[in-house]
Amino acid sequence: MRKLAALPLLIFPLFAFADCTEQLQGWAKALHPALVFDSEHAVCKINPADPKQVLAALTFTDTAPDEYGEGDYGLEVLVADAATGDVIAHHYQSAAISSDAIRFESLALDTARYQLAPKTRAFGVRVSYEGASRVNPYGGTSLSLYVLDGSVLRRVMDKLMVNDSTGEWDGNCAGDFSDTTRTLSIGDMGKKGLANLVIDEKVTASHDQPKGDDCESIDKKPATAKFTLDYDGRQYGVPKGLTFQ
User: Fold this and answer.
1) Which run of H or E residues covers position 12?
2) How do residues 45-93 score in pLDDT, each as one tens digit?
3) Which of 149, 146, 163 lies closest to 106, judged by CA?
4) Which residues of 63-72 are buried (b: 16+ CB within 10 A; e: fewer)?
5) I need a surface site. Which of 13, 22, 34, 57 has the fewest CB within 10 A?
């Protein structure tokens, strides 16, 4: 994590006259001039909790990914002044995203009401993945949470899998499929200054099998579970089974 002094106004025209997406190249060049900016996946939006701020997530590579999009991506998350484009705070993690047989598909900014304390509201970055195998389909989305702490942007939760869909079938009909969804809500105030996070998990599964000339799908009874994540003064520890591997 590094701090960055406000970037010169010359680099960024006023947001009053430009969409924030027009600032992405400027931020990328100013923050990581030696890296390859992956403009295809970059996203930004006005912060609904504070319209004076713009949130953005950008990805970079040391070298360009191969023709199949495989490689590691560094993730830059930033908060900027909506009037000037000056970077207020940012957080960079090298090799934060790996793209191989499980392909990196997209980024999204999550501005749900993650009110962790009376004066502390987090925002999220969602990373979505998709598997390349037809007979072993996969789709998943991870969520990381960030809070602005003065001039520092801190990641307080890393890569909670909020959706995880898997399958294994013969390419014709017979097979098994599973979908896991996790919903995040704010719990009671914890001992280290931020509220606990409550995760409600629901797993639905089905079994497909031939039945005459048709393919019959048999739904299994959904399974549910609840987890609580405690803030340890630095971050929320996500259990290994709930994080993207």
Assistant:
1) none
2) 999 999 999 999 999 986 666 666 678 999 999 999 999 999 999 999 9
3) 163
4) eeeeeebebb
5) 34
